[in-house]
Amino acid sequence: MTTEGNGLTATGMFLFFSRNDSLVSRLIRRVCGCPWSHCGFGFSFDEPEKQSPRISRIDANGAAQTAVYYEALFGRQIAPPRPLADLAAWAAAAKGREFVVVDIPFVSPEIAERKRMIAETFVQAATYGGLQLLAMFFFLEFGWRVPRSVGRVVCSEFVARVLFPEIWMLDNFDEVTPGDVWNWAMHAGTTSPGNGRSAQGEMATC
User: Fold this and answer.
1) For residue 37, which of 117, 129, 136, 109 has the smallest C-alpha distance?
2) How far apart are alpha carbons 98 and 32 in whole angstroms?
3) pLDDT (tens digit per residue) in 119-134
4) Which of 40, 180, 38 is nearest to 98 (CA)?
5) Between the chain's N and C termini, which has fewer beta carbons within 10 Å?
6) What is the pTM of this model?
7) What is the three-state SS of the chain?
8) What is the CA radius of gyration of the chain?
9) Looking at the predicted structure, is the pLDDT value of residue 178 above 50?
């Protein structure tokens, strides 16, 4: 699914985080110290007052026509956006798969649409590289610096590059982890640490 040429203009932006029971997912969570091993972002096309709450469980019937998401998947080029319902379908397809959606409340429609256009420039132009993921592991475990590369990204780097600079000022893109994105999301904008803690406890049952 693509939003190009269909008259849709983004009015809001959100992040999503996911995990599964695979060895890689468990290793990433351990190394990053984060409850989630993967992250991405998306855009809603509703009027602002109709957008999803900041923390929400999205099922296959929710926001299928009004929200799309982007992600960097291991070993693949970044693909065009997909309906948010596809993420719910992924989670429902196997035991141990979970995800959560976190709205970014302070993003104006103008910035959301600008970020959507930036995201489109990565589609089929950047790849989630295995060496980049390995470099991230050595960075986290041993402090070895990750080589800078725009064409090779991991999931969290893709998020950081699109959010910079209007939404998130962090610019060490190649060394951003899902844990960094998660921690920022739990404290960004109007979210208090209390909301973050209660949300984290709730997410375990998503």
Assistant:
1) 136
2) 18
3) 999 999 999 988 777 8
4) 38
5) N
6) 0.80
7) CCCCCCCCCCCEEEEEEEECCCHHHHHHHHHHCCCCCEEEEEEECCCHHHCCCCEECCCCCCCCCCEEEECCCECCECCCCEEHHHHHHHHHCCCCCEEEEEEECCCCHHHHHHHHHHHHHHCCCCEECHHHHHHHHHHHHHCCCCCCCCCEECHHHHHHHHHCCCCCCCCCHHHCCHHHHHHHHHHCCCCCHHHHHHHHHHHCCC
8) 16
9) yes
Per-residue pLDDT tens digits for 51-68: 443 333 343 444 434 789
Q: CA 141 to CA 138: how far, in whole Å? A: 5
Strand partners, 82: 69
129: how many CB neighbours lie within 10 A of its CB? 17
Residue, of 50 and 31, whose pLDDT is higher: 31
Q: How many CB atoms lie within 10 A of CB 39?
A: 28
- Our measurement of the distance from residue 179's CA atom to the centroid of its chain's CA atoms, rounded to an integer in Å, reads 11
Side-chain-facing half-sphere of 206: CA atoms under 13 Å: 28
Domains and CATH numbers, the chain: 12-194 (3.90.1720)
